[in-house]
Design brief:
The chain is mostly helical. Helix content is 78%, strand content 0%. The protein has one domain. This is Transport permease protein.
Length: 267
């Protein structure tokens, strides 16, 4: 029992590290800076100026905070999907499925590095907000904000694990990912207050990851305490757990389907 636990732990952490290192070209400094530092900057500038001009009422901090949290979704959705689907593109998926490795440790471990990378992306976004838009963090509880960022990144990574399963049976999973990502820009409240959305959109937004994380971050930066946002964070964490478990079961089903349909290789 102890040996099995040790083996699964090693698979979890080594799989997390090597899948991130092997499958991502952004480990080159220039590529990483372009995709993780400067691309978020241009996106934030776009939404801050367009949003503040169009609304006439929301301050720049509203859009800075919302889009900083969106960067967690970017890493969670695209990064985690590539950690799962990249095995297929690299031709290593048959070896992965042929191994006796614990599927849960192997599957969930794919999200670990992207949770950390997503948190870093949020901090970079907030840093741009401080430098360019005078975002005020003087009333912020740093531990509460850190916990909010961690849970939000985890929940969006759960969505990425779910999306990553589709890469086992389709060639164009990025089309699905882009659609989900841009829907989050609208439904999560990052750029449009949830209360201003039509009722049916508000109902959908409450079932999505990120929505509560964005609301919690704004509350904390405005001076709220952890106790003020804890109920929302608990639901956000629960959503991440549900998405991860659902993604795992789909991963098992799609593994069987991929073997049956002969789609383990992309070509």
């Amino acid at each position: 029992m102890l040996n099995r636990l040790t083996t699964n732990t090693r698979i979890f952490f080594e799989g997390a590290y090597y899948s991130y290192k092997a499958l991502f070209r952004w480990l080159r400094p220039a590529t990483y800076l372009a995709s993780e530092v400067f691309a978020p900057l241009t996106m934030m500038i776009f939404f801050v100026y367009i949003g503040a001009y169009a609304s006439g009422s929301n301050s720049a901090s509203f859009y800075v905070i919302g889009n900083s949290l969106i960067f967690a979704a970017s890493s969670g959705i695209f990064g985690v999907t590539m950690s799962v689907g990249g095995e297929r593109w690299s031709g290593t998926l048959p070896y992965l499925f042929g191994s006796p490795a614990n599927r849960w440790a192997m599957f969930v471990g794919r999200a670990v590095m992207h949770v950390l990378n997503g948190m870093l992306g949020v901090f970079i976004g907030l840093g741009w907000g401080i430098l360019l838009f005078k975002l005020d963090l003087s009333h912020t509880d740093p531990l509460a904000l850190l916990l909010t960022i961690l849970i939000t990144t985890f929940s969006t990574s759960g969505l990425g694990l779910l999306m990553g399963c589709l890469s086992l049976i389709t060639r164009n999973v990025m089309l699905v990912n882009n659609t989900v990502y841009f829907l989050l820009l609208v439904f999560s409240g990052a750029n449009i207050p949830v209360g201003d959305l039509p009722r049916w959109m508000q109902v959908i937004s409450q079932g999505l990851p990120l929505t509560r994380g964005v609301a919690c971050a704004r509350t904390i930066i405005d001076g709220g305490s952890l106790a003020d946002v804890l109920p929302l964070l608990q639901v956000e964490f629960l959503i991440g757990v549900i998405l991860t478990i659902l993604g795992y079961f789909l991963f098992k089903i799609f593994e069987i389907e991929a073997k049956r349909m002969g789609t383990l290789d992309i070509f």
